[in-house]
Write a structure and sequence with these properties.
This protein is an alpha+beta fold and 277 residues long. It is built from three helices and ten strands, in the order βαββββαβαββββ. The protein folds into two domains: 12-148, Hotdog Thioesterase (Thiol Ester Dehydrase, Chain A), CATH 3.10.129.10; 152-257, Thiol Ester Dehydrase, Chain A. This is Acyl-[acyl-carrier-protein] thioesterase.
Length: 277
C-alpha cells in the first residue's frame, strides 16, 4: 500500500481552502490529532465545499469508498489547521478528491478519498451532474478513473484476539452510514501507544459493505513488521460474523524519522497579559 502514488503533488489550479482551530476532542493525550480526527476534518471540508459551490442542488448524495491518509508530520493542539481541497481524477460516477492539511504549529498530512455519487432513490451509483463534472474536471490528471482495491491482504481466521463492538447511534451519519471517523476510532484503540503512529505512516480504509444503524461488529486485526491490518465483520442476531468483511484497514510505515515531540504547553506563566479584545 505504501507504494501507491497520488497523481498530483499539489493543486494545479485554484482549490477550496478553509482554516479552523484544532479542537481537544480530536487529539490524544499527547495532543496529536488522531486518525479519526483527520477523517472528521475531511468530511467537514467536503460538506463545506458542497454547500459553498451550490452542489447540494445538483449532486447532494455521496459516499466514500476509500480514504488514504499520509501523516508526514502530525498536527497538534493548540494550533490552527489549513486545508486545501481539489479534484485529482474523475469518471462519470465517481472521483478522487485530494486534501492537504498543514498546521500553524507544524504538521503535514496528505489525503485522497474515492467519492461515489449515488442516487437517493436507488441507492446505486449515478452520473455526476454536467455542472458538477465541469467544475471537477478543471485540473484533473485522469478522466477514466477506475476502482482498484489496495487492502488486498487475506483476513485471518477467527481467533481469541477478536472482539465485539456494539456501535452507537452517534456513530452514524444522516444517511444512516457508519461515520467514517468511527471506523478509525477502533484503529486508534488498537494502536494506542504503538510506535507505528509515532513516525510517518499511511492509513488506508476501504468500505466494502454497508453497516446498518444498531449493528454490532467483530473486529479482527493483525500487527507485524509490515504494519497493522484490521477487518470489521457485521454480526447477525445470533452473534455470528458475516462471511466477508464490511471494511478493511491498513496502517503502514512511510519513510522518515520518528516524530519530534510537540512544543511545550501551557506556555510560560505570567501574572498579567494584554488580553485580546
Amino acid at each position: 500500500m505504501s507504494d501507491y502514488q497520488f497523481l498530483q503533488a499539489a493543486p494545479p489550479g485554484p482549490s477550496f481552502e478553509r482554516s479552523w482551530p484544532v479542537r481537544t476532542g480530536d487529539v490524544d493525550p499527547a495532543r496529536r490529532v488522531r486518525l479519526d480526527g483527520i477523517a472528521r476534518y475531511l468530511q467537514d471540508m467536503a460538506n463545506d465545499e458542497m454547500f459553498h459551490r451550490g452542489f447540494d442542488a445538483t449532486d447532494p448524495y455521496w459516499l466514500v469508498r476509500r480514504s488514504i491518509i499520509d501523516v508526514h508530520a502530525p498536527l497538534h493542539w493548540p494550533s490552527d489547521v489549513t486545508l486545501l481541497r481539489w479534484c485529482e481524477s474523475t469518471s462519470s460516477r465517481w472521483c478522487n478528491m485530494r486534501i492537504t492539511l498543514r498546521g500553524s504549529a507544524g504538521g503535514h498530512v496528505e489525503t485522497e478519498a474515492f467519492w461515489i455519487r449515488f442516487s437517493a432513490d436507488s441507492g446505486m451509483p449515478t452520473h455526476i451532474s454536467d455542472g458538477g463534472m465541469e467544475y471537477l474536471q478543471q485540473y484533473v490528471t485522469e478522466t477514466r478513473l477506475r476502482w482498484k482495491a489496495l487492502n488486498t491482504a487475506t483476513p485471518p481466521e477467527p481467533s481469541a484476539a477478536d472482539y465485539t463492538v456494539k456501535l452507537r447511534a452517534t456513530d452514524f451519519d444522516p444517511y444512516q452510514h457508519l461515520n467514517n471517523a468511527a471506523y478509525l476510532q477502533l484503529v486508534e484503540d488498537d494502536l494506542n501507544g504503538d510506535p507505528l503512529l509515532a513516525a510517518p505512516h499511511r492509513a488506508v480504509i476501504e468500505y466494502l459493505a454497508p453497516i446498518p444503524l444498531g449493528s454490532s461488529v467483530q473486529v479482527r486485526f493483525e500487527r507485524d513488521d509490515a504494519g497493522y491490518r484490521q477487518w470489521l465483520y457485521l454480526l447477525d442476531g445470533d452473534g455470528a460474523p458475516a462471511r466477508k468483511p464490511a471494511s478493511a484497514v491498513s496502517v503502514v510505515p512511510l519513510p522518515g524519522e520518528p516524530f519530534a515531540p510537540p512544543a511545550p504547553w501551557p506556555p510560560e506563566q505570567v501574572d498579567r497579559i494584554e488580553w485580546r479584545a
